């Protein structure tokens, strides 16, 4: 077997294991086949036994025989095997399993000759062979080959296994096994023996009775199974135990809750009249025959009068009714339940559809009523928009709000930092300059920050700007003539156009598209009123309006840096997008802005179709129009330039950076600005916003630069460095823009400063390049730090801080720490003692530590002269710290009687003189586990009485 | 001159009806009741001190035996019934309310090793060295009032001497231990089941009061064995370093039990997890001979060879109370009363002693107000238990010199061992001397 195993499997490389296998086989033979004798006749094996490995010394058999006398670990694997075998067989033979295993291992057709089954198989194979001889040649040959092979193997096996000696204890079988069937063969023909043969055959068909596993193994298996089972059983108590342990109050003896729920019906059914009154009433009821039992009885009597069929029919009907009711109820319940989102959606749509149909009908039947209804709906819609019901619902709205908040905050800060009046004017200049070139500061500001400051980003920005400028140039080329003709008008009245933008800004709408459209429409109406209405904005739009071919319809902004210009040329719609600063937020919103713009343009188209006739625009929103006109009228009537200037300053607010330009954009009151009314100021903000090149064309005078720089110098001394840098860059940009101003519409116009108070500082400097510090910057820096004695200031500050944390010496109370009274000479100087405040309790110290007020000796910068290390933490948190540890007294002096009683309740309450029984289930329920779970899942502790 | 006087109107305080609330004139303004924390602390401190003053735990001694008392048991139905067996074979039934024995008899020749009450409390069972198990009636009074002769109502004969006995909590089954554990049905003369695992003698056996089919035993081969009588098999064996003398199940927690060990400690085990003890209860300075859970499952009492009785909380490593007497000898057996208010100890000095479970608790019935006051003080003590003085005073116990000395000696020994181990660890390869949890130290192995 071993050899074959080697050949066949080829995996068992260890001889040792082969031997082991052999031995096992032999053991089996010895045990089951009754061929023990071979062992004795084969001295070789004995010699083998001598060389048993240490591991093998206490083998399976020994283990079975001697139980767990040996080491535990040694036999664990074998034991497991046995155990598994035992458990799997469920009382079946041990050896069967082993055989099965053998088969599984791959000794397929090669059966052990000592294996009974194998023997039989062979035999039957032989018989089959004879019977099917004529059937098929091929099969026959195959069979022959197989048989031959088997025989060979058999021979090998036989040569290996010693031949049984014939003697008084054994009969030689010549390698064949004696089976019961072979013995029975001669008897089969005999009629008298038929029953015996049959019985024996039956017996033969059965397998051998299972050899029971060793007691030690069975017992262990029993123990293991039993332990697991018991473990599970006791674990059912776990939730109750847990609950019991965690209960706040437990009262012994425990009162376990009853297994069933108390319902009204259960109370009624178990009700028995006890008090005299109850009994009296009960007796009266029963006397009247109105009690349950008598009612039932009378009903039964009634039923008896009827025939069986009738009763059946009645019952049937009742049952039917009941079932109908039941089903109806179920259905109703189900329908009630379905209220999903989808359901709502569907129902809503259905309603809408219905509504539309109704409207249609209404329109046909009663146009007046329909009109009314439409108006009502429109009013509702308008109301909704006015009240900004959905202000905070969209992403856009939220973003806009955030931006606005930021702007306002900035403004507030600036207002705080605004000091002198004289500076204010400078500021105005700055504001103007910024407003004129709205994108400038934005760009420069972005340039400063992070990635935007890098060279390649700037290059790309430059590229973008150029592209944008090209686009705009193309645009402008379309209506250059008008521009030129209008130029003089712009010069005078550009400020008026700006005013509208201010108005827009004041409206604070989240989207500007709609408004811009309206504005345009309004603007379209205005030209005949006064030439002044033509403004910067219409520099581009007015032309198209005149010829009716091209028109900039809308400008949509996603954030400050992204904007979409839509140009409508006849039926064609072109969308231009410009990302002036390559701005961070803008990029994200570009897509959405585009979409928005498209949508808007479509709507505008529609509106235009409705309201526009023959290329001439009719009025848009009447109210808006009126407002606008009014404003303009007053302006013109007054002719006040300051208003115009104000309008100008507020020009194009959404294009300005949220931080600065927008914040300052609203600052008006510059009187002189109106006079100047430079074309630069009057430029159409829409276009200027979209196109960088046109921005460049705008004028930012050297004067303005000078103002800026002056203002900076003053501010810088007090402001932080970062802010200053921003400003400086802004300055640089402005300078550049000023320089870059080309031959665009009024681009070469130079602004003159109205008040020349700071003229000396306003030398016309050549504008700095976009990258690299300019001379201007350097000069500014020097100016900023010229008079600041920073070091001294720092030292002073440090000294102050250190002093404030040092413990102070205070004069001691007279008589404190020494003798007092009459005749005692007072010391010249009162003793000085370190200030020790009785207030400085633990809590106070903790509080100080919490907000980072570190005492002198603990300061980290105690010995560092060049630095102040602030260890202050969030001092706002300090107000939430408690001064005193909260202490809820338990006593009756501080609590109400009920509260006191509640608070002093004992955790474990034991009733005196009551036997406390072990925890147990109240009822004998079918499933203990369920009952326990049920009890444990009750909200109340099971232990409360 | 204006003179202010206190004036009280009687009618303000008089209730019209009995059901009316008692009017209390109390101004709840916190400004009028300052220093609440200080005052409550003082109250707690005083309460702790008063506890010491009132700590008089010893209630009564039950005397009558003429030899050391080896075992005793309480009835599961009546609070006052306690039976005890002594080394001279005498069996006595006591009435705790009077302190007298109802009857006594020489039940066995040699030691009475175990005694237990039946579930209904009407019978009690005893076993002894004479290989006999006997059932006794509770009442041996005739209707006239005259005493009958105390005769066993039933006698079962075993093959070996018995060392312990316990009654099933629901059915009429008896478990005895000796060489093996036997389960007896009183209707049969032969045991129903014989449960054995190993050849050593089993010294104690206890039925689980919650899961009635489970029982556990301790044997002299240092093992603790679990059994299940449904399958009549043993379940698991746990071997400790030293012998466990007695075992007691927690009556409120089906799977937890505590064993009294020879190594001066008690161990709480979860029968589902034998790899580690749940808790090690230390304080005794000699072998612990018996342990009994309070019926509340919140604490247990243990008696030791060191002549002290200690009360432990079920999850505390140290005892909360220690009782000792000048003349009290080795404690053989201890009991918690059925209402968890009393503790009994049976000792070598022929006496059974009755102690209060809470030393300073009043035995008298209390007025509601008194009751509330005590509850309030208890809560205060609990609140301030960690403050130094309260802690010190509440923990202080007077101990006999011998025990004090032994405790100190134990401490020294422990420190020395620890030091030595640390030294060994220090000079060994890292990880060669592992740290072993105290709860696992005593566990030798768990056998399946």
UniProtKB/TrEMBL annotation, chain A:
GO cellular component: small-subunit processome
Ranges of Polar residues composition bias in the record: 548-564
Keyword Zinc-finger in record: no
Keyword flag Nucleus: yes
InterPro entries registered for this protein in UniProt: SSU_processome_Utp14
Top-level lineage group: Eukaryota
Region (Disordered), start-end ranges: 1-139, 410-775, 791-828, 924-945
Keyword field: Nucleus, Phosphoprotein
Ranges of biased composition (kind: Acidic residues): 12-21, 47-63, 95-137, 415-425, 483-494
Localization of this protein: Nucleus, Nucleolus
Comp. bias (Basic residues): 530-540
Biased composition (Gly residues): 737-747
BP terms from Gene Ontology: rRNA processing
Biased composition annotated in UniProt, kind: Basic and acidic residues: 22-33, 64-82, 426-438, 460-469, 502-514, 593-608, 632-643, 668-678, 711-723, 796-809
Protein name as catalogued: U3 small nucleolar RNA-associated protein 14
Organism: Guillardia theta (strain CCMP2712) (Cryptophyte)
Automatic annotation (TrEMBL), chain B:
Record keyword Protein biosynthesis present: no
Cross-referenced CDD domains: WD40 (cd00200)
Subcellular location: Nucleus, Nucleolus
UniProt-listed InterPro entries: Sof1, WD40/YVTN_repeat-like_dom_sf, WD40_repeat_CS, WD40_repeat_dom_sf, WD40_rpt, WD_repeat_DCAF13/WDSOF1
Record GO biological process: maturation of SSU-rRNA from tricistronic rRNA transcript (SSU-rRNA, 5.8S rRNA, LSU-rRNA); protein ubiquitination
SMART domains hit by this protein: WD40
Superkingdom, natural source: Eukaryota
WD repeat copies, ranges: 62-104, 105-136, 281-322, 331-365
Predominant subcellular localization, coarse grouping: nucleus
Name of one Pfam family that matches: Sof1
Keyword Transmembrane attributed: no
Keywords, comma-separated and alphabetical: Nucleus, Repeat, Ribonucleoprotein, WD repeat
Residue ranges of every copy of the Sof1-like protein domain listed in the record: 357-443
GO annotation, cellular component aspect: small-subunit processome
The family this protein is said to belong to: Belongs to the WD repeat DCAF13/WDSOF1 family.
Record-given protein name: DDB1- and CUL4-associated factor 13
Organism, scientific name: Guillardia theta (strain CCMP2712) (Cryptophyte)
């Amino acid at each position: 077997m071993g050899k074959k195993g080697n050949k066949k499997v080829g995996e068992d490389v260890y001889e040792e294991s082969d031997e082991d296998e052999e031995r096992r086989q032999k053991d089996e033979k010895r045990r089951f086949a009754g061929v023990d004798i071979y062992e004795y006749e084969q001295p070789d094996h004995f010699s083998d036994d001598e060389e048993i490995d240490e591991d093998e010394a206490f083998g399976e058999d020994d283990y079975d025989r001697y139980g767990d006398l040996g080491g535990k670990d040694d036999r664990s694997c074998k034991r497991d095997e046995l155990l598994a075998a035992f458990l799997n067989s469920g009382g079946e033979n041990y050896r069967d399993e082993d055989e099965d295993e053998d088969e599984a291992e791959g000794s397929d057709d090669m059966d052990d000759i000592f294996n009974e089954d194998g023997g039989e198989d062979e035999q039957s194979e032989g018989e089959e062979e004879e019977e099917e001889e004529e059937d098929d040649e091929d099969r026959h040959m195959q069979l022959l080959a197989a048989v031959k092979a088997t025989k060979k193997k058999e021979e090998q096996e036989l040569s290996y296994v010693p031949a049984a000696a014939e003697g008084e204890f054994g009969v030689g079988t010549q390698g064949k096994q004696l089976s019961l069937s072979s013995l029975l063969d001669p008897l089969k023909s005999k009629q008298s023996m038929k029953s015996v043969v049959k019985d024996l055959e039956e017996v033969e068909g059965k397998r051998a009775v299972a050899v029971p596993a060793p007691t030690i193994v069975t017992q262990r298996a029993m123990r293991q199974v039993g332990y697991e089972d018991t473990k599970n059983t006791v674990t059912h108590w776990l939730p109750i135990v847990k609950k019991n342990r965690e209960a706040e109050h437990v009262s012994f003896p425990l009162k376990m809750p009853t297994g069933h729920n108390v319902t009204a019906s259960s109370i009624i059914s178990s009700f028995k009249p006890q008090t005299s009154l109850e009994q009296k009433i009960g007796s009266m009821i029963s006397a009247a025959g109105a009690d349950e039992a008598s009612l039932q009885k009378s009903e039964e009597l009634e039923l008896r009068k009827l025939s069986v069929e009738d009763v059946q029919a009645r019952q049937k009907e009742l049952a039917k009714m009941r079932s109908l009711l039941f089903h109806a109820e179920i259905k109703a319940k189900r329908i009630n339940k379905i209220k999903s989102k989808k359901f709502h959606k569907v129902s809503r749509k259905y309603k809408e559809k219905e509504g539309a149909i109704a409207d249609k009908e209404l329109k046909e039947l009663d146009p007046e009523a329909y009109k009314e209804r439409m108006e009502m709906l429109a009013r509702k819609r308008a109301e909704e928009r006015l009240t900004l019901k959905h202000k905070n619902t969209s992403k856009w709205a939220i973003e806009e709000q955030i931006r606005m908040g930021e702007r306002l905050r900035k403004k507030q800060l600036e207002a705080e930092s605004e000091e002198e009046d004289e500076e204010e004017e400078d500021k105005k200049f700055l504001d103007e300059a910024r407003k004129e070139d709205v994108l400038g500061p934005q760009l420069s500001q972005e340039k400063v920050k992070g990635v935007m400051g890098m060279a390649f980003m700037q290059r790309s920005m430059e590229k973008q700007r150029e592209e944008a400028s090209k686009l705009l140039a193309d645009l402008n080329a379309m209506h250059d003539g008008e521009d030129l003709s209008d130029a003089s008008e712009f010069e005078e009245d550009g400020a008026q156009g700006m005013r509208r933008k201010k108005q827009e800004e004041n409206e604070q709408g989240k989207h500007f598209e709609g408004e811009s459209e309206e504005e345009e429409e309004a603007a379209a109406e205005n030209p005949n009123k006064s030439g002044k209405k033509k403004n910067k904005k219409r520099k581009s739009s007015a032309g198209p309006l005149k010829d009716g071919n091209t028109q900039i319809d809308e400008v949509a902004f996603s954030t400050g840096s992204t904007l979409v210009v839509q140009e409508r040329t006849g039926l064609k719609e072109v969308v231009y997008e410009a990302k002036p600063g390559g701005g961070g937020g803008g990029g994200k919103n570009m897509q959405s802005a585009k979409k928005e713009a498209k949508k808007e343009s479509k709507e505008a188209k529609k509106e235009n179709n409705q309201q526009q006739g023959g290329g001439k625009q009719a009025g848009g929103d009447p109210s808006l129009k009126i407002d606008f006109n009014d404003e303009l009228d007053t302006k013109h009537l007054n002719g006040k330039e300051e208003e115009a200037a104000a309008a100008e300053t507020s020009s194009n607010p959404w294009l300005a950076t949220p931080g600065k330009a927008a914040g300052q954009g609203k600052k008006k009151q510059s009187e002189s600005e109106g006079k100047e009314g430079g074309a630069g100021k009057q430029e159409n903000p829409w276009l200027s916003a979209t196109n960088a090149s046109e921005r460049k064309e705008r004028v930012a005078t050297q004067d303005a630069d000078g103002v800026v720089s002056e203002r900076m110098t003053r501010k810088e001394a007090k402001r932080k460095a970062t802010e200053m840098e921003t400003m400086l860059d802004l300055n640089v940009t402005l300078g550049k823009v000023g320089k870059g101003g080309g031959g665009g519409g009024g681009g070469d116009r130079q602004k003159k400063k109205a008040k020349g108070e700071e003229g000396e500082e306003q030398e016309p400097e050549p504008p700095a390049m976009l990258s690299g510090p300019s001379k201007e910057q350097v000069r500014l820096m020097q100016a900023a730090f010229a008079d600041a004695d920073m070091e001294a200031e720092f030292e002073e500050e440090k000294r102050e801080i250190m002093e404030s944390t040092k413990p102070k010496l205070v004069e001691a109370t007279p008589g404190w720490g020494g003798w007092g009274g009459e005749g005692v000479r007072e010391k010249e100087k009162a003793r000085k003692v370190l200030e020790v405040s009785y207030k400085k309790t633990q809590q106070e110290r903790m509080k100080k530590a919490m907000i980072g007020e570190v005492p002198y000796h603990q300061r980290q910068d105690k010995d560092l002269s060049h630095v102040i290390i602030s260890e202050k933490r969030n001092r706002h948190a300090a107000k939430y710290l408690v001064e005193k540890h909260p202490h809820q007294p338990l006593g009756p002096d501080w609590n109400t009687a009920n509260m006191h009683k509640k608070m002093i309740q004992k955790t474990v309450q034991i009733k005196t003189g009551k036997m406390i029984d072990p925890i147990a289930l109240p009822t004998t329920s079918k499933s203990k586990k369920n009952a326990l779970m049920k009890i444990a899942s009750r909200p109340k502790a099971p232990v409360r009485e | 001159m204006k003179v202010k006087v206190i004036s009280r109107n009687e009618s303000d305080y008089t209730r019209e009806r009995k059901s009316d609330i008692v009017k209390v004139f109390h101004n709840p303004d916190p400004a009028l009741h300052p220093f609440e924390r200080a005052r409550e602390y003082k109250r707690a401190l005083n309460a702790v001190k008063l506890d010491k003053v009132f700590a008089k735990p010893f209630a009564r001694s039950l005397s009558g035996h003429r030899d050391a008392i080896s075992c005793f048991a309480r009835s599961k139905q009546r609070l006052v019934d306690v039976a005890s067996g002594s080394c001279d074979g005498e069996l006595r039934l006591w009435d705790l309310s009077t302190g007298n024995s109802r009857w006594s008899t020489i039940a066995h020749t040699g030691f009475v090793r175990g005694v237990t009450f039946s579930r209904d409390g009407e019978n009690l069972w005893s076993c002894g060295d004479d290989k006999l198990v006997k059932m006794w009636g509770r009442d041996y009074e005739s209707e006239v009032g005259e005493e009958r002769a105390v005769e066993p109502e039933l006698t079962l004969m075993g093959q070996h001497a018995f060392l312990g006995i316990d009654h099933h909590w629901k059915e009429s089954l008896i478990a005895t231990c000796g060489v093996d554990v036997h389960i007896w049905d009183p209707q049969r003369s032969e045991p129903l089941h014989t449960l054995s695992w190993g050849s050593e003698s089993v010294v104690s056996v206890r039925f689980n009061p919650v899961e009635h089919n489970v029982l556990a035993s301790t044997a002299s081969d240092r093992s603790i064995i679990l059994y299940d009588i449904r399958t009549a098999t043993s379940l698991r064996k746990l071997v400790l370093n030293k012998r466990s003398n007695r075992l007691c199940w927690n009556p409120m927690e089906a799977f937890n039990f505590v064993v009294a060990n020879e190594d001066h400690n008690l161990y709480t085990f979860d029968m589902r997890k034998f790899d580690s003890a749940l808790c090690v209860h230390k304080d005794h300075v000699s072998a612990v001979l018996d342990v009994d859970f309070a019926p509340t499952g919140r604490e247990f009492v243990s008696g030791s060879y060191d002549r002290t009785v200690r009360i432990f909380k079920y999850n505390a490593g140290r005892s909360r109370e220690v009782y000792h007497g000048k003349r009290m000898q080795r404690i053989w057996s201890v009991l918690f009363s059925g209402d968890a208010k009393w503790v009994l100890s049976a000792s070598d000095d022929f006496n059974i002693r009755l102690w209060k479970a809470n030393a300073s608790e009043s035995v008298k019935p209390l007025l509601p107000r008194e009751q509330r006051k005590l509850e309030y003080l208890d809560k205060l003590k609990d609140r301030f238990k960690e403050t130094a003085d309260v802690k010190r005073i509440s923990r202080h116990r007077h101990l006999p010199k011998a025990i004090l000395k032994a405790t100190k000696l134990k401490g020294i020994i422990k420190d020395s061992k620890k030091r030595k181990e640390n030294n060994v660890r220090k000079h060994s390869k890292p990880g060669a001397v592992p740290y072993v949890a105290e709860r696992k130290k005593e566990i030798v192995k768990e056998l399946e």
